[in-house]
Write a structure and sequence with these properties.
single chain; 147 residues; alpha+beta; Ribosomal Protein L9, domain 2; 2 domains
Length: 147
């Protein structure tokens, strides 16, 4: 029996996959628990349309990430933090601090997209990676100044 999975099923497949299963497993478990639906021409067409729409959304997201990377890559931004003598900061510059500076400059970057290699605890210039998409990232420079 061929079925179209509506949700991910461990050991069987992901949502919208067309899989071949035993008749009893398909009728008594997958269809009954609404994890799958029977494979028919109309249902296969629906799956094809959904996959096409998802592919188009993924393509647009990748294009937007590439465009943002082109605008953002290589730029420098200034972060001000409270500091003491000798260039030491009282705390550390975090992903959230960098995200706020980027948002203030017109870039919609969430704090989870900012990747800092080592903790920034001193005044100076640091390279920070911004992960815009699983396939797209860029490097920016952060200049940390004491207040």
């Amino acid at each position: 029996m061929k079925v179209i999975l509506l949700q991910d099923v461990k050991g069987l497949g992901k949502a919208n996959d067309v899989v071949e299963v035993n008749d009893g497993y398909g009728r008594n478990f997958l269809l009954k628990k609404k994890l799958a639906r029977e494979s028919s021409a109309a249902n296969l067409n629906d799956v094809k349309m959904k996959k096409g729409a998802e592919a188009e959304l993924a393509k647009r997201a990748l294009e937007a990430a590439n465009e943002t990377a082109g605008k953002l890559g290589g730029k420098s931004f200034v972060v001000k933090a409270k500091g003491g003598e000798g260039g030491k900061l009282y705390g550390a510059v975090t992903n959230a601090d960098i995200s706020e500076v980027l948002k203030a400059n017109g870039f919609d970057i969430e704090k989870k997209q900012v990747v800092i290699k080592d903790a920034i605890k001193n005044v100076g210039t640091y390279g920070v990676r911004i992960k815009l998409h699983p396939k797209v990232s860029c490097e920016i420079n952060i200049e940390v100044e004491a207040q």
